[in-house]
Structure formats: structure tokens, C-alpha cells
User: Fold this.
Amino acid sequence: MALTGIQIFKLLPKTNCKECGVPTCLAFAMNLAAGKAELDSCPYVSQEARNQLQEASAPPIRPVVLGKGVRKTTTGGETVLYRHEKTFYNPTVLAAMLRSDIAASELSNKLMVWNAFQYERVGLNLRPEMVAVKDVNGKAESFAATAKTIAETSEFNLVLMSQDVNVMKAGVAACKMKRPLIYAATKDNVDAFGGLAKENDLPLVVKADSAENLIPLTEKLMGMGLKDLVIDPGSREIKNALFDEIAIRRAALKASNRALGFPTITFPCEMASNLDMETLIASMLIAKYAGIVVLSDFKGESLFPLLLERLNIFTDPQRPMTVTQGIYQIGTPNENSPVLITTNFALTYFIVSGEIEGSKIPSWLLIKDSEGLSVMTAWAAGKFSGDDVGAFVKKSGIADKVKHKNIIIPGYAASIAGDMEEELSGWKVVVGPREAAHIPAFLKSR
Assistant:
């Protein structure tokens, strides 16, 4: 449970040295309690106090790092039940399952197709992160060979799935460099799998037949010094899976149950007979509250909507996505190319730049900082006013890149044209279309 400012203050050195950037230790403690400061800012806090503070300030659901390389990701670390309360931090990890006895040629083809599933959206690269290798015959050699091929020939990180500790050891040895997730410690093998995870410093899934029965297993593993745990309550029926996800999240956040304070792994691939139904289940579990979702396959028609849903849910609702203020080249513009301007709301930028690119007319696009607001909202809020926009254009340096002095503004901000022309002596402000979809025709007609 989080400590209050006074409780934190009691653990600080009380020197009022000001080296943390605030005048007193009490003020620093209040900032720590509010999440506005980092403990490392205090150079004199004792190690004992540091340990207590770090434990007390740890998220109720432990963040667990999965894998290495370009698709390294983190699951867990959440602090609220509902996104509107604050935000969700670490997006649900998407994985697809492969059998350990898959033929080498089929595996190569699968990985080639799956690696290509990457979608650009509002400047972000959306893609799945993991592949789960399931032991289907108890043969350590084939399990290790499949894991090794995935680790060495693809960007994906791995979930290794076997109940045989010897098979698991072979899989770990084959792909340890990718920091695989071990699945799964149960009441029958908890000592062996816990020891393997600890020896190799790997994250470990804990599986039971109910959320309640997970508690003694996670407590035992934590007693062994293991912290990077992922939990599976064993639910394979849709209603029970949803119930367990909500119950586990509430237990961690509302009841401060550290034994259940870990991200979860779910298996829509074991709850449905076809990928379409799996996708529907996965969409439910992304919203409530799976840390990892494992599908039977990756197909564009199911993967893309899941990635978009994930993006929407795990985008901070209190902080609009933005792009950096400045001059952007669309195509290869020259000194005679048109100049357009819009706000720095990311979606606005990517829609407008996409339409300009689609027009095949190289252009200069000025992006004005509007605190992430769209054109209409920014104009209404005074963040895209004529004199302010005009001052930005003068300072931007665009006049050094073009011969002409014509600038195209969004149609929804037509009212700022007069103020802009007063600010920009010698410039002609042209009112463009209201809708971005009309930009290509507008540019071609000029």
C-alpha cells in the first residue's frame, strides 16, 4: 500500500540539504507521495529506508519485463481498475501458438508471414510481440530446435510451454538470450520450475485451477526470491475467464493482495474452435484485464483490429498524442512548392500529411504546437489564433525555403486569416478545405 507523505518523511534523513531540488525533506516526501519526484533524487537516504520505500511504492501489480531485442515489452504495472481514473501503462502482449513438432519449412514460412505483420498508425509501429511454443510430444530436441529457430530467425520473444522440467531446460538453453517466459509452475512442479527460473533469471508463469489456489504457489515462489511472475488461474470458459480477470485485478488493487499482484496470461486459443471466435474473446480480455493473450494464429483480419483496440485502451486519455512542432517535408518539395499549416495533434498530422502525399504534389507542412488539440478545438481554446500562428510562421524559417509568400490554412480556422496577414507582412493567407480528404483536389486546382 502506498505511503503518505508523513510516513515517507519519517524514513528520510531530514537534513533539508536542498540537493533534491526542493527546500525541505518534508516537501520532498510530499512530492514522492504524489508521484512527482524520484527517490534517487535524495543522495542521503539510507539503504534500509530505500528498501522500505521502494517496496511500499511498488505498483500493486508487478511490472514484468518479457524478452529482449526490438520486441522486448513489459506487462503489468497497472494501478487503476478503470482507464478514466488515470491511465493504463503496459499494453496487453499478443502471442500466437506453435507446436513443438512443427516442420522446419512450415515454421520458416510462419515466421516470415508473422514478422511482416507491422502496421503504422499515428506514427507508431503496431505489431505482436511473442510466440508460444507448446511441447506436444515430450521430445526435448524438437522443442529446443523450434525455440532456437524462433529466437535466431525472428524478432519475436518466446513463451516456452511444457510440464516436463527436462524439456523446459532444453528450451531455455536454446533461447536463453531472448529471456523467454517459462510456462508453467504448478503445485506438482513448483520447486523444479521455480529453481529453473531463479537459476536463469527468467520470468515464470504460475498456473492453478482457480485464482484462490494461485495464492500458496505465488507465496512460495516469492519466498524463493522470485518476483517476475505471471499468473494463470486456469480459466478456459469465457464467463469464468472474464470473472477471474476482474477478480484478480480487484484483489490486487482494492485488497492489496500481493500474492495476486501479477499480470495474467490468457488463452483464447483454448476457448474457441476458430480464429474468429478467438479474436472476439481476445478483444474482451484486452479490455478486462489480460497481460498476455495467446491466439492460435496471426491473421491480418483479426490481428489488426486487436492492435487498434489495444492502442485505444492503452493511450493516456489525459494526454493527446502529438508530433513535434516544426517544418515537415512531404515528398521532395522545392522553393516553389505549396506551404500548408495545421496543429500538432498526431491524428491531424497523419491524416493531413497522408492526403498531401496522396496528391502527389510535394509540399511543405508546418506543424504548430497546439498542446495536442485538433484544429477546431485549438482555435476555440485560443491555441491556434492568427497572431500566434503568424508569429510561429515567421520564426519557423519557412521563408528561407520558398520564393513565394503564400500559406494555406485549414478551412475550420478561416477566421484567423486576417490576423495572420497583419502579423505576416507581405504574405497571402489562403483558406484551404475544411476536410483533409479534399486537400488533393484543392492542391491540384491551384
